[in-house]
Amino acid sequence: MSDLNRIFYELKSEFAQNVEWTDVEDWHCDDDDQLTGQRAQKFWALPMCRQDLQRQDNQLQTLRELAQCIRLMRSSDIESDTRFDIINDNWAKIENIAPKDYLTYIYALSSLAFLPHDLVQHAPQPINENVNVHLALNAVSTYFLSLTIPGAKSYGVFDEGVIEHCLRVFRLLENYSNSSPLANNIWILFLTICDDLKLVFRYVHFKDHLKPRDNIVRCLLTILYMNFRQGYNNACAPQLHAKCFELLDEITIAQNGDVYETLMHIMTETFYMHIYPENTKGSGPKSGEHISDWFIKLLDKYPDILSIVLENYIECVITNPIKEWKVGDEKIAIGYAAKYDAALYSKCNKSCTDLLLQAIQADDAVGLQLRSLELIERILQHQTQVEWRIFRHDVSTKPREVALIRETIRCLDDKTFSVRRKASQVLTLAIRNGSPITTRILHEVINFVQYDDLESKAKLNSRQTEISLERPDNLHYVYSFEGFEELEAEVKRMPRLIYDRFLMSSNGLARCSGLALLERLIQINNRILYNTHFEREISALATDTLSSVRKTTLETIDALLQTYSNCSILVDVYCRIWSCMLNDDDAQLQKLALHSFNRNVLLNIKPLEYSNESKHLLPWHILTTLLATQPRDYLQLRFNLLLQNENLVTPTLVNTIISHLNTPMATEAWTLLLLISSRITNNLDSIIPTFDRLSSYNMKSNQVLALQLIIYCLSNFSKASLNQLFKCLLSLMSTGSIWLEVISPAMLLLHHIDQLSHSQAPQNSASVENWQVQLLEDVTAATKECMENFQTDHIRMASLLATYSELIVMIPHEADEKIIDFVLGYVKLCMSLNESSFDTDNERMMNWMVVIAGRLSLRDNDLAYKVAKMYGQILSKNDRPQLINSTLICLNDLGKKYPTILESNMKCILVKLSSKYATTRVRTYRCVKDVILAGNIKLKGSILVSLLAGLVDDSIEVAREADAFFIRYKKLYDKSLFHHCLKEIPFDLNDQAFLTGSVRLEAGFKSPLKGPNKRKLRRLLYNHILAALDENTLLLYFGQLKLLAEKTKDASFIELPNALEVVIDLLFIMRRICFCTKSKWQQGAGQGEGEDDDTPHEEEPPPAPITPAEQSPATDNAAGRGRGRGARKREMGEEPLKQLERCLRYVEEIHRNLRNYMSSDLHREFNKFCRAMTMRFANLTDFAQPAHFWQKYKTKSGPKSKRRRLNEEGDDADGGDSTESNSDTDSDLPLERHKNVSSAADGAEVKDSYDMLATELIFQPLDW
C-alpha cells in the first residue's frame, strides 16, 4: 500500500484543484466562437496539460509506474511479494486523493489524443503531439487498472462518462494503420490496454453497467472489422486481433451481465462480419481468426446458451438476411451458418435440418428456398458426426443427410425454375464433392434403384437384342444406412424429372443443369442408359437453339464415353450430336467437335496387337455407326474444312490405320483414311497391293473407298505405283471383270491419273495414245460378243455396258446402234413380263438397263424423248421402290438438259407421290423438288396440291422433305405463297373450282386429300400454313366470308360432291385464326422473375384488339407525336378489324343458305366457329346484326358454377356439340405429330432410327 500512496502522491502534484472532468468536457465544446479563446486558456492552464516536455516525461514515468504496480498486485502468482492485500490495498487507504481530481486528471490527459482545432490554434506553446498520444494512452491504461482497486465504485472512481471518454483513444488505430515506428509503438500500447481491460472485466463487475461494457465491445469489434476490411496493416495487428477475442472471453462471464444477452449482443454486432471470408486474400485474417471460430470455441463453455444464439443466426440468415447484401455476401454468410450447424451437430447433437425442411417447402418464397438449398449444399459437402461418447441413445441412427437429400430431389419438380436449377446444382455437387456419408448414401441409392421407364417388348429387333446383351444385370444389394426407403421412390423418378423438367425446358440454363446432373447419375448407374428414355431425350438436343446447350450435350456424352466406352446407346447418341456439330453455326463448336473426334477416335486407335481394352474398340464402333447413319460426302467435306488449321493427323497415326486394312475393321479404316486424306503426308504405295486383294463380293464398298482415297491422295503415290494401277484398271474394265459399283470411281481415277500425267509432261513431249478411245473400242467389241451369250454371261454384260455408258458420256462419240437396240429391247421385254416372271435378277438387271439407257440418250435428242416415254410407262406400270428410284433419277438427269421431258411426264411422276412405299414417295418428292427449285417447272395446280399433301404424309421423311422445300421455295421465289394458298387451297384439295366459271385443276387429277375421310389431314395442313402467317394476314382472311356467302347461295356449287367439305374447311380455318391470333396477341406478356417457364397456363377468353373508338386519350396523344413505324403498324392492325366488322353480316346469310344442306358435321363446325368469333371478337359481335343470331353463341353463366369451363376451341366442356369433336387434332401441326414416333429404343432398327433424327442438317439441301 505504501507504493500506491507514494505514486499517487507524486501524481497528485499534477492534479488541478477545484476543476471537475465535466468542466474539461465543456472546454472541448465549440458551441460559442466568442468564448473559444477563454476555454482554450483554461484548458492549457491545467497542470497536466502544459506542453513542458520535462514535466510531461515525469508524468509519463509516474503513470507507467502506477500501472505496473497495480499489474503486479493483480498478478496470478500468489507467491509474489507484491501480491494483492484486500485489507490495505483499496481506495479507502489511499491518502489525500479526491476522486473528482483524479477523474479530471485522467479525462484531461486522455483528451490530448484528439484535440479540437480551436484548442490547437490557441495553444500558448508548441504541442508535443507524440508525447501527448503516449500520455493519453498511458492515462487510459492506468485508469482502467485503477478500477480494479477495491472500492472504486463506492469511492467514486468508477465513472461511466470517463470510461466512455477514454474509449475514444481506440480511434487512434485508424489514424495509425501503417507500419511506421510511431504506429508500431501505438499498436503495442493498445496490446497493453487490452491486457489491462482483461483484468478489469475479471475483477470489476459490469452487470449493472452495461453501457460501458457495450461500448468496450464496440471498440473491440471495430478493430476486428478494420482488420477484415483493410487487412493486417501493422505487424502488431494479428496479436491485437487475438487479444480482442481473449477480451471478449472475459466479457461473456456471468458477472458482466446475463450470458445469453451478452452473446446475443455480440452476435448482433458481428452479424455483418459474417460476409467476410475466413481466408482473406493478402495480409488479412486467416482461418481460425474469424468471429465464427470464437463462437464455436465458446460452445464448449456455454453449450446450451450458445446453441440458441447460433440457431438464431442460422434462422436469420435463411429466413431474413440483410437486404443490402449481395448474392456473394449471402453465400458467405450461409457458409458460416453451415459451419455453426456442423459445430452444433457434433458438440450438442442439434441440427437445423427441421428448419431447412420447413423453409424449403414454403410456398411463394423463392429466395427462402434458394438459401435453404444453399445451406443444404454446404452441409452435404462436409462430414459431421455427433461426437458424444455417452448418451448415444439420444443420437439418431438415421443420417440427417437422408431427409436433406430427399427434399432436394423433390425440389427438382418445383414450379419455379430457379429452385429447380439450384436443386440440380446441389445434387450434382453432392455427388461429385459430397462428404463421405453423403457420397455413400447417394451412390448406394442411385446404384441400387431399379429404373424401369421403358416398357418391355415381347419381340425384340436386332438392335434391341444387341442392347439387351449389353444391359447390366440387376444388383443384389444391402443398404448400409437407415432411411433408404425414403429415398428410393424419389431417386427412381429423377431421370424422368430431368427429362421433363430440365431437358424439355425452354430455358437453356435449365437444360445445361439437367445434363450435368444426368451425367453424374449415369456415372454411378449406367442402367439409366438402358432403362429410361435417355437416347430419345438427349438426341433431341443435337439441334438445340442455344450453342451452350449443344456444347454441354457433347461434353456430357464425351465424358460418359470415357467411362462406358462399349455402350452402343452412347455411341449412337454421340454420332448424332457430333455429326450435327460438325456444321454448327458456332465455329468454336465445330472445333470442339473435331477435338472430340480426335480424343475418342484418333488417339484411341492402336495396332491390333495392342487393342486389348474396350476404349481401343471405341473408334471402330463410332466409325461403324457413322457409316450407317451419316452421308459420307458430308463427313468428308466437313473434315476437309476443319482439318485445314489443325495438326491432328500424324504419319504414325496413318500407318496405324493402314495396319487395320487387313483386319475385320477394314471398311472403317478405309473410311477414316478417306476422312483425313487432306492431311495425309505419308507415301501410300503400300495400299495398292491391299486394293488388289479386295476381290471378293463383300469388298465392293472397300474398293470404292480405296479408289476415292487414291483420287484424293494422288500426290502421295509414286509414278510406278500409279502406272501399275492404271494398267490393272484398264484391263479389268475392258474385259468386264470389275464390279458395277466400282466402275464410276475407277473411271474417275483413270481420268485423274491421266490429268496428272499430262500436267507433269514437258510441252514438247510426244502425244500419248488416247486411252478412252481405245478402251471404248475394246468395250464395244466385248459387249457385242457378250450379246450372243447374254443368258450365261449377263453379269459381265452388265459391267461392260456400265463401262460403255461411262465412256459415251465422257467422249464425243455416238452410241452404237446395236447396243442401244439391245438395251431398249431388254427394258421393253422386262416391262412386258408379268409380276410372277419378274424375279430379283431381272429387276436388278433392269435397274442397270434403265440407268444405261438414260446415259446413252444424253447427247441424242430423239433418243432422249424416246427413253423418257419409256420411263413414263415404267412409272405407270411399276411400284418397285428400287426401279422407281432409278427411273426418277434418270428422268431428273434428262430433265436438266431437256426440260420439256419433265413437263410431259409430270403426271406420271406425281402419281408416285401416292405410292405405298415411303422410299418411293421420298425419292419422287426430291425429284419434283429439285426441278422446281431449279426453275424448270412452275409450282402451281396439281403440282402444288401434290407437294402440299407431302406435308401431312405418314412418312416423317416425306414431311420433312416437304417442309424444307417450302421454306426454301418461299425464300427463293415467293414469300407470300402460303398467303395465296390459304385462299384457294380449300377448293383445290376438295376438287372444286375457286371462282365461278373457272376451270379447276388438270383433267384427270384427283386430289389426294379430298373427302370427309381426309379431313383430319387437311386440318393438319391448314394448321401448318396458319403457323407461317402473320396476324394481319390471318385477320384479313375473314374477307372470305363474302366469298363463302356467294358460294353457298349458288345451288349449283353447293350440290357438287365435296362442296360441303370446302365450307367446313373454310369455317375451320377461320375458327383456328381466332385462336392463332389470340395466342400471338398474348405472346407479348412475358413471365416475371421466378415464375415457372414450363407450367401451362389456363387460356382465358381472348379479348379483341382495341378498336379506334375504344382507344384512350393517352393512346391518341402517343399516336399524334409522329407517324413512324409504330403508327403504320397500328393502321395495319386496324384495317383487318374494319374489314371483319363489315363482313360479320355474311355469317347469318351463310347459315341461312346452308339451312337445307346442314349435316351434323357442318352444324357442329358452324357452331364452333360462331362461338370462337364471339370469344375472340366480343366487342364486334356484340353489335353484329342480326342480334338474335349472335346472342345464342355468347357464353352464359349457369347457376351451378361461377364460370363455365371452356376448352381450347370455345366449346362447352360438357356441351352436346362436342361429343364427336375433332378437337384433339384441331391445333396439331403435321411435323409435331411425328415427335412421338418410336425411336430405336422402342422398336425401330438402328438405321431407321437415325432417319427420324430431328435435325435439318442432314436433310437440308447442302451445297457440296
Structure classification: mainly alpha
Helix content: 55-70%
- From the spread of the alpha carbons, the general shape counts as elongated
Number of distinct beta strands? 0
Protein name: Condensin complex subunit 1 C-terminal domain-containing protein
Biased composition (Basic residues): 1193-1205
Keywords: DNA condensation
Biased composition (Acidic residues): 1209-1229
Structure description:
The protein has 1264 residues and is mainly α. Among the domains are: 1-161, no CATH class; 399-531, no CATH class; 814-937. The chain is 62% helix and 0% strand. Helix 11 runs parallel beside helix 13 (237-251) and helix 26 (508-524) runs parallel beside helix 29 (547-563). The model is unreliable at 1079-1132, 1197-1224 and 1237-1264 (pLDDT under 50). GO terms for molecular function: chromatin binding; histone binding. This is Condensin complex subunit 1 C-terminal domain-containing protein. Residues 1083-1134, 1193-1242 are annotated as: Disordered. Residues 1193-1205 have a biased composition (Basic residues).
Features of this protein?
1264 residues; mainly alpha; 62% helix; 0% strand
Provide a compact summary of the structure.
This protein has 1264 residues and is mostly helical. Helix content is 62%, strand content 0%. The chain is built from 64 helices and no strands.
Task: Give the SSE layout.
Layout: H1 2-12, H2 21-27, H3 36-45, H4 53-73, H5 99-111, H6 117-121, H7 129-146, H8 152-155, H9 160-166, H10 172-175, H11 181-203, H12 210-230, H13 237-251, H14 259-269, H15 291-298, H16 303-319, H17 327-348, H18 353-360, H19 366-381, H20 401-410, H21 417-433, H22 436-448, H23 462-470, H24 484-492, H25 494-503, H26 508-524, H27 527-531, H28 534-539, H29 547-563, H30 568-581, H31 587-600, H32 614-629, H33 632-642, H34 651-658, H35 666-675, H36 687-692, H37 700-712, H38 719-735, H39 740-760, H40 771-787, H41 794-810, H42 817-832, H43 840-856, H44 861-877, H45 881-897, H46 899-911, H47 918-933, H48 941-949, H49 956-972, H50 977-989, H51 1015-1027, H52 1031-1036, H53 1040-1049, H54 1051-1054, H55 1059-1082, H56 1113-1120, H57 1125-1143, H58 1145-1153, H59 1160-1176, H60 1178-1181, H61 1187-1191, H62 1223-1226, H63 1246-1251, H64 1256-1259
